[in-house]
Structure formats: C-alpha cells, structure tokens
Amino acid sequence: MEGRVLPVLLGPTGHPPKTYRIPVPGAEGGPPTVLVYRREPRGHSAKLGLPRGWKYVYDPEGRKDSRLRWPWSKPDTAPGDRAEGGPEGKPDDAHG
Predict the structure, then answer these.
(1) Is the pTM of this model over 0.70?
(2) pLDDT digit string (tens) for 17-52?
(3) Cα–Cα distance measured from residue 94 to residue 86, given in angstroms and rounded to the nearest whole number
(4) What's CA 66's distance to the chain center, in Å?
C-alpha cells in the first residue's frame, strides 16, 4: 500500500472488518491482483486483557477463512475426499 492511509468503515459493533481486500490494477494492463490484510490486536490491556487497538497484517496466501465456523458444521472436503463405497460415500449393501 506504499504507506497510504485508507479510511476504515466500522461495523455495527464498532469494530473494523476482520479482513480487508484491496484490488490493485495489473502492471501494463495485466490482470489485477487482490492484496489481503487481516486484522490483529495491536496489544492488550494489563488488567482485563482487552485489545488496545487494531493493526492490519499482510496475508500473502490470501485465504478465505472469513465465514463463520460453527461446531456442528461439516468440515470442507474436496470432491475426491469422500469415503469409499458408493458415489456419495454410502456402503454398497445398505440392507445389511
């Protein structure tokens, strides 16, 4: 970002977004790239351990982990990671 300061919009809770994506035009008309920055606490207070501010750290991998992870959700699997058996991972003989 070359030292530029961008305004950060706050959410309904008063916190900045967890992930900031900045589109950058490609050099010489090439494809654009997206730089991803993740929010991290700048420090914590001594008594309560509350965050004392936020800073954005560059994420070179640009992961998309921004969706909520519920304890009862199924883990993400690739199409080839299904259990062996039938086409949907079911056993061949379901009657017994």
Answers:
(1) no
(2) 888 888 888 888 888 888 888 888 888 999 998 888
(3) 10
(4) 3
